[in-house]
């Protein structure tokens, strides 16, 4: 790769370290021509296959844009969305696959979104799990209630973060 300062085609690696929980490696490089330093990040490529047959590189900003629509009017910040997109990318990369269907990416979003905001979750789930009837919503709400109930019956003495919205 060319030096970004002087376009010299050669550089020397002076340091390498794992970042993002080991899903990427960051290398500090030194250009022997201009003596300046720059960094490169190396990750495995992750391809998303869309229903249309088109493939594209995984993109956190696509995730954020998709979830942002479901979060309209909800108390969800841009930081929340960025963290969610990072969680989704990390869990997909942790599974060790190089390609994933766009639909499966949508399903990966559901779990962290459920923790983030239940209304946004229901909106998003209704699209990605193909809700067709009120019953589908009722079942999803029942599941949310059951999980909330399990959390509130945790033995005392265990500190849980309380959501007081
Ligand atoms: Zn240079």
Question: Can you give me a brief rundown of this structure?
Answer:
With 165 residues, the chain is α+β, with helices and mostly antiparallel strands. Helix content is 44%, strand content 19%. It is built from five helices and six strands.
Characterization of the model:
Strand 1 and strand 2 (24-30) form a beta hairpin. This protein is an alpha+beta fold and 165 residues long. The chain has a three-stranded antiparallel β-sheet, with no helix packed on it. A three-stranded mixed β-sheet has the order 5-4-6. The model has no long low-confidence stretch (mean pLDDT 88). The protein contains five helices and six strands, in the order E-E-E-E-E-H-H-E-H-H-H. 44% of the residues lie in helices and 19% in strands. Zinc ion is lined by residues 3, 5-6, 8, 31, 33-34, 36.
Kindly list the characteristics that best describe this protein.
165 residues, alpha+beta, 3-stranded antiparallel β-sheet, binds zinc ion
């Amino acid at each position: 790769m060319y030096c970004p300062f002087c376009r010299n085609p050669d550089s020397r690696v002076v340091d390498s370290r794992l970042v993002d929980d080991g899903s990427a490696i960051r290398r500090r490089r030194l250009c022997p021509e201009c003596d300046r330093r720059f960094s490169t990040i190396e990750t495995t490529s992750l391809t998303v296959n869309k229903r249309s047959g088109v493939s594209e590189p995984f993109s956190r900003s696509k995730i954020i844009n998709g979830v942002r629509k479901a979060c309209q009017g909800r108390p969800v910040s841009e930081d929340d969305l960025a963290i969610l997109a990072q969680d989704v990318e990390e869990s997909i990369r942790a599974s060790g696959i190089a390609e994933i269907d766009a639909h499966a990416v949508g399903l990966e979003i559901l779990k962290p979104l459920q923790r983030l905001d239940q209304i946004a979750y229901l909106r998003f789930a209704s699209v990605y799990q193909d809700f067709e009837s009120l019953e589908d919503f009722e079942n999803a709400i029942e599941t949310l209630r059951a999980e909330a109930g399990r959390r509130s019956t945790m033995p005392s003495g265990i500190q849980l973060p309380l959501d007081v919205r």
